[in-house]
Amino acid sequence: MAKVDLHMHSSYSDDGDYSPEELVSLASKAGLKAIAVTDHNSTRGVDEAVEAGKALGIEVVPAVELDCLFNDLVFHVLGYYIDYKYEKYFQVEKEVLEQNIAASRRRVELVNRIGIEVEYEEVLALSKDGAIQGELIAEAVLNKPESRENPLLRPYLPGGSRSDNPYVNFYWDFCAQGKPAYVHIEYMSLQEAISLIAETGGIPVLAHPGNSLKGRMELLEDIVNLGIQGIEAYSSYHTPEQNSFFARKAEEYRLLITGGSDFHGKTKPSVFMGRFGLEGDGMDILKSLKKQKQIG
User: Fold this and answer.
1) Report field, pTM of the whole predicted structure over 0.85
2) 4-86+187-293 falls under which CATH superfamily?
3) 10 Å Cβ neighbour count for 283?
4) Is the separation of the CB atoms in 235 and 285 below 8 Å?
5) β-sheet bridge partners, residue 263
6) Neighbour-count burial of 25, counting CB atoms closer than 10 A to its CB (0-12 exposed, 13-18 middle, 19+ buried)
7) What is the percent of the chain with per-residue pLDDT over 70, rounded to a whole number?
8) What's the pLDDT at 40?
9) Which member of 60, 168, 268, 293 has the lowest number of beta carbons within 10 Å of its beta carbon?
């Protein structure tokens, strides 16, 4: 298992389960030496994570994960060693949250239209901030006894083919881009995400490309040309073959190679800190990032 995990989420992400302090504590118990708390479009948890890291002897890299659009696809860009107090990050978080709140009722309506009955108010009661994501809808419907009677839900229940990560699998199957309950959010462009991270002194890295590219590998070179500086070659979403492929691609383009689990907690129960297909402790990845940032 790696000693470095550069992709995980706290409760400042809509789909994160643990506070930054709790996340750092879990990382310590898992034997990690360095982590990055990469919340979706939010940097508000970084201070708490950094302070908790100091107390427990864990290095916490200031980071974020920005949702963005390129060629009609949704991508995620990780930003490492950013100036996380930069005002623009708070504006981005506010704008995305407002859009997600506005889209919430429509998401619930579309899920009902598929043939999965759920009340808007029952899902809203589970929300931390008024936004209803697909994972939250899954939590509401899959924990009702009557869900066993719906054949659409059986794959996500214990023993089903999609039960390893039931909430996020539900999201990917029904609410993600291109699926029947998808509601469009006008994220920033990929170029804007890369520029914001660079503008705040950070290192922009393409997250889990095996998941985000949707098989459109020809887009990778275009993304590199936009100024991406690294590829998250090692991911819990990748097969071993994909890990190797994207590591080779990073070397081919002379980009940084990074890796992370994308740990969330209950949303992805089969994703564990420090486990993302990397051989070795991962300290060389951290060293490369620091060299790029000219730290140490």
Assistant:
1) yes
2) Metal-dependent hydrolases (3.20.20.140)
3) 13
4) no
5) 8
6) middle
7) 100
8) 98
9) 293
